[in-house]
Amino acid sequence: MERKKIVKIDFNKKIYKLKAARRAIADYQDVAGLKFTENKSYFQVEFKNMPKEFDSVIADEFGNYILALMMNSK
Amino acid sequence: MKFKINSQKNQIAFFLNSKFYDLESVYGAAYVFLDRAYVFLDGDPKKEIIVYLKGKEKISSKGLEALRGEFYNELLNYLLRVKIAKRNKKIREYIVQCALLSAVGATAGETDEDENINADYKDDPLGIAVPWKEKK
Q1: For chain B, which has fewer Cβ within 10 Å, the N-terminal or C-terminal residue?
Q2: For the whole prediction, is pTM greater than 0.95?
């Protein structure tokens, strides 16, 4: 049985804005299964059920997307 | 300047001293690279910011170093832009304020003129206007 890939990324709260992250999560809901958790310094986004052909880039693209949202919201 | 290359991940990581590079400029430089690389930021914005650049296409070690160099150039570009924007903030605000005020003034002027035009028809300096009722 094939194991489904799960990717987790920790975003530094001092650098990444929570509002942009929440917006990005909402926008990516249709692309993959996302789970959001946070602690004092970081918020973590977990990616599940990603389309196999894009599973290596979705998390990285997501990181870029948050940065783009942060710049565009200024 | 220290950096680490991870060829397997196609990634370069380097450190920016926050005394010289503020977070605002780092965001600006990162934004420029979004179409060429995956950018990830970490660290402490008050001490040291860590930048991870991961190539979207396979890049050699030298290519990754060149990418880092370009990032530094872009960073300098943004530092200057942020500095100039801060320095010129008051004059920009003043120019916009003047532009808005003159636009409001022009609109107000047009309204007065319109009222004058409408009021003109009542004046009859030559006495040629004949009321309807008197004609009968």
Answers
A1: C
A2: no
